[in-house]
Input
Amino acid sequence: MFRSFLTGITAVALFASLASAQTVDELIAKNIQARGGMEKLKSVNSMRLHGKMVMGQGMEAPFVVMQKRPKMTRTEFTIQGMTGMQVYDGKNAWMVMPFMGKKDPEAMPAEQAEMLDEQADMDGPLVDYKDKGTKIELLGKEQVEGADAYKLKMTLKNGQTRTVYLDAESGLEVKMESKRTMRGTEVEGETFLSDYKEVNGMMMPFTMEQGQKGNPTRQKMVVDSIETNVALADTLFAMPAGTKPAAAVEGKAAVKEGAAKAEGAMQTADATADSAAAKATGKAKATGKAKGTKVSKAKKP
Output
């Protein structure tokens, strides 16, 4: 009898595990369908976004994000007349940051290069997640900006974790949390996605707010236009000859400061692509206006 009891408990536990996995896959399937469907997502081979970062005291910093398959991304942003960039060609990551005294191309540290590699995924982290070596578990529901959202914890192949919140009604991504270990220091950030608009049969967030987890202060990014399948030469992403090696970062405070700056600039790409950055998410006619998620028709760029 005792053995039968244990067998029954094991069967129940196995069933619960399978049910959970099915629930996760159902939520992801809904998300992909809401984003426009797998075929539509895979048909996008390149993307270019124009927008602005809204800063304090009414200041705005324009940015351009360019992405191309298989894994190339380039983000340019202009602050006080100086243009910085963070670029990844699928193997090498490099940057130009004149407002930080780095006017010549310089290779990015390994941790930041890994961040760009992740953000260069145009399909987003949920598509083909098993093939990418990612494990996902459902942690229930939570309120995000006043609306219910499913909370999915992702454990990446490298062991780092991310959390994605999917609007319970529409399936759209409304929040993303990242936890990264950079030179022994844990850095946590969060991004809120909203103002979804239809672009060529897909839905993309046109407003993103990013900041450190638990800190009410956020940096707001507003997308003005999105183009898909545009001609982007590989040379836009290639590391220039003579690029300086990555500079050493000393001390935990320096790591946190550098990571925060890199995260703030590159989350634009994560939230729109990766969501790619950021992200095509949903057919407007299929989902309508998601609860707590603004959905409207985009103007043609």
